[in-house]
Specification:
Number of strands: 8
Helix content: 10-25%
Distance between the termini: 28 Å
Strand order of the largest sheet: 1-4-3-2
Structural class: alpha/beta
Shape: globular
Number of helices: 2
Strand content: 25-35%
Length: 127
């Protein structure tokens, strides 16, 4: 698609974390994506599901708290899955947890990744 807008491409989305390699590995295992680690720079990248996510190690990282805004969620990812129960189980086995508060359980399951970021696992689209 051609555009006349001044910005023409989203290259990646970058996520702060206390350990870029570890969080990239978590999301890589969860999505089946390809992780490239640059430990000398404190950065890792993940190519998965048609998108690029970058992870950067941050000193004095402040872990978000779901759903509180005292330590805001900072961002969250919505990930579609063919089998919600299997995806939740896989995420937990990889180190995530199911959030205690589930605002729309019929639409998604809120999970907390190993570094505190919330993400949603969403069931298949209904026709």
């Amino acid at each position: 698609m051609t555009t006349t807008a001044p910005v023409t491409e989203l290259i990646a989305f970058t996520i702060d974390t206390p350990d870029a390699s570890a969080l990239a590995a978590f999301y890589g295992a969860l999505t089946g994506g390809e992780v490239t680690d640059y430990p000398e720079y404190g950065v890792a990248s993940l190519s998965a599901l048609g998108a690029n996510l970058y992870f950067q190690t941050v000193t004095d990282y402040s872990r978000p708290e779901w759903p509180s805004q005292q330590h805001p969620q900072q961002f969250h990812l919505d990930l579609r899955t063919a089998d919600l129960d299997a995806a939740v189980q896989a995420a937990v086995e990889l180190g995530a947890s199911v959030a205690s508060e589930q605002p729309n359980p019929e639409m998604s399951t809120v999970m907390i990744d190993p570094h505190g970021h919330p993400f949603c696992l969403c069931p298949p689209k209904q026709d």
